[in-house]
Amino acid sequence: MTTRRSFSAALGAAIVFPRFALAQTFPSRPLKLLVPYAAGGGTDAIARLIADATGEKVGQTMVVENNGAAGGNVATAIAAVAPPDGYTVLMANQGPMVVNPHLFKQLKVDPLTTFDPVTLITSAPLVVVVPKDSHFKTFKELMDFGLANPGKLTYGSAGNGSASHMATVLLAKVAGLNAVHVPYRGAGPAIADLLGGRTEFMVTTLPSVLGLVETGQMRALAVTTKARTKKLSDVPTVAESGWPGYEAGAWYGFVVPKGTPADIIEKLRSATVAAINTQKVRDRLQNEGAEPIGSTPKEFADMMQTESKRWADVIKSAAISVE
Fold first, then answer.
1. pLDDT above 80: residue 9
2. Are 80 and 114 in contact (CB under 8 A)?
3. Residue 314 belongs to a domain with what CATH number?
4. At what angle do helices 42-58 and 262-276 cross, to 10 degrees?
5. Residues in Cβ contact with 206 at an 8 Å cutoff, skipping those fewer than 6 apart
6. Which pLDDT score, from 0 to 100, does residue 207 have?
7. Would the pTM of this model clear 0.85, i.e. be above it?
8. Cα 186 to chain centroid, rounded
9. Residues 205, 261: one domain?
10. Which sign does the torsion angle of CA 300, 306, 309, 312 carry?
């Protein structure tokens, strides 16, 4: 009996010890942050800022890898099958996490059940922009033309299901606008084509275009949040421009593959929260119209469930889908 108990205890220790040891030594090598958009956009800018700061706090480099294919679904699928050891982190935001499951018919991954949330990092307003030489001087002028000329306006986005895409879909639903969508693999390429005159307007993250607006290369017509943003205090909101039922924004967080040990998740969360609360990061986020958050995993999970339902309703009402 003693021998059997001793064997059972030893077997239990053998099973528990590797997980305990992994958590105790984590991280012992660089971490990978998968970003489901191309380099150069708002998501990428925030990802790199947070990756550098979190890497410093956790004691290892956090290497950013961009993959904007299929609206972020490829990067999400890669992250989903990564070992649940904390070394692969996905930059989670609206499109891949809570929109794409309702938008893409062939999507095989349910992000809300495939990943464990770490923390909601920040949220930011979106802004409606046109190139500097656009004949649209105000948001009302843009909307008046679009409403009077169905199908004549073209807009770019960071990809199918991205915050920029869905914010415009919501605008079309609220205002009755019919505009042609041109999806890209990230905000960067979409902004380049907008500057080149190949599209006519874009709803995008403030961090991705703030510099262009401040230097006069783009004109900001409206922001998508209920209240004006401090960074563009003279730019009206969509709501105050005549569509009071409209509100949209962008959010960013970290998730890891399902089954990642809770103590590793807590190490990642603690390092991330410490990072976003450094003066350098807080100043940078606030300078781009974003605010540090640092939620608990449960708070982040609850928020994503609510967002998923919201966008499912919008997508169903708009009758849109992607093969």
1. no
2. yes
3. 3.40.190.150
4. 110
5. 42, 124, 125, 126, 127, 223, 229, 231, 232, 288, 289, 290
6. 82
7. no
8. 11
9. no
10. negative
Neighbouring CB atoms inside 10 A of 125's CB total: 26
**Token code pair at residue 84:** 């649940």
Q: Which residues lie closer than 8 Å to 270 by C-beta, 6 or more apart?
A: 57
Reading the block at residue 235, the tokens are 């730019």
What 3-state DSSP class applies to 197?
coil
Which range of residues forms the domain containing residue 307? 29-124+250-318
Beta pairing partners, 255: 90, 117
Residue 1 lies in a domain: no
- HEC readout, 239-260: HHHCCCCCCCCEEEEEEEECCC
**237 beta partners:** 223
Of 71, 56, 146, give the one whose Cα is nearest residue 107.
71
* DSSP one-letter string for 6-18: HHHHHHHHHHHHH
Residue of 306, 304, 240 lying closest to 90 (CA atoms):
304
pLDDT above 80: residue 300: yes
Q: Distance between CA atoms of 31 and 40, rounded to whole angstroms?
A: 21
Query: For residue 172, how many C-alpha atoms fall within 13 Å in the half-sphere facing its CB?
Result: 25
